[in-house]
Amino acid sequence: MSKALQFELLHKDAGSKARRGRITTPHGVIETPVFMPVGTQATVKAMKPESVNDTGAQIILANTYHLMLRPGSDIVREAGGLHEFMNWHKPILTDCGGFQVFSLGHLRKITEEGAMFSSHIDGSRHMLSPEKSIEVQNDLGSDIIMGFDECAPPDADRDYIAKSQARTTRWLKRCVEAHRNPDTQALFGIMQGGFFKDLREESAAAIVELNLPGYAIGGISVGETKEEYIGVLEYAPDLLPENKPRYVMGIGTPDYILEAVERGVDMFDCVEPTRIARHGMAMTSQGRVSIKNAKYERDFTPLDPECDCYCCRNYSRAYLRHLFKAGETMSHMLLSEHNLRFLSKLSEDIRDSIDKDRFSDFKAEFYAKYYGEREQR
């Protein structure tokens, strides 16, 4: 058992593969399934840490690539680590930087050593290798750190995916060797393999052999169709140990979350709730609301009458529309806080439904209310 992370499987839903768990880390306990807000640059955009905490968030993410470039992981280390630097004292997960590097396209070159890339900030050249990714994450001091992987494009051919998946496994072994703080930081491995089941099986077998504290399913929610996404989830979680946390990276819409939970996934994250907030969009109990719409000009009701967040307890749709149309940053703050509370509450309701062996009923009820019949599965 890892000293840095303990996972308890508390209950399995009677009618699906959904599961209730509990993760214990040096900075606190996380009840699963859990949505994790993203604080890319050591901040959840437009949010104070106290406000993020008020949404019910149990753990947040930060980004290795961005913090390596600015302000530099050495500065964060000198500040006492990421928890002290950003004044967030609950658990933190840092991603490995792979997705950001590989999304740079022509600005990066992948070799066995790692990824050479040009900074999006000033064009300076950097090498992000498995060893460098782990060094940065060790400096940051996050509770959960991710192995360095290649997130291959969803339309890559089988030959490329096979080579990429094998290289990701070799890189993970180097990450294990480079990891300086295994007693305080839990290293998760990432399964790759695209949409090829046999390559996923090969990847899972190789990374599970390393007996890490947890595992992620990478390479989905990267632009594929929903059918392709669900197709991978039909078997991928079952390839990972039942007694370890399972994490799908980069999902933040209710349907993707529910489909993942139904198939045995415990953790998920996305920039979606804060990103759409900056565009005037809110997730509500009745579906998405665009606060920009003229029909809300004289609507003095709460954004979501079923929500208990600070925004919904204190402000009307008319006021939120005014803020957004006036270009006031407070609209981003309030809508971000609401959206994060919405996904935190969704996670709470999911956990409750699993405890009561009624996850499938909860999912159907949620879909009918949020999406209407068009999204029923």
**Radius of gyration based on Cα positions:** 20 Å
Assign the structural class, choosing from mainly alpha, mainly beta, alpha/beta, alpha+beta, or little secondary structure: alpha/beta
Number of helix segments?
Answer: 15
Distance between the termini: 38 Å
- For the biggest β-sheet, the strand order reads 4-14-13-12-11-10-6-5
The main pleated sheet reads as: 8 strands, parallel
Share in helix: 25-40%
Number of strands: 16
Bulk shape: globular
Average predicted confidence as pLDDT: 95
Residue share in β-strands: 15-25%
Q: List low-pLDDT spans.
A: none
Descriptive report:
There is one protein chain. This protein has about 375 residues and is α/β, with parallel strands linked by helices. The protein is built from 15 helices and 16 strands. The strands form four sheets. Strands 4-14-13-12-11-10-6-5 form an eight-stranded parallel beta sheet. β13, α10 and β14 form a beta-alpha-beta unit.
Gist of the model:
This protein is of the alpha/beta class and 377 residues long. 39% of the residues lie in helices and 19% in strands. It is built from 15 helices and 16 strands.
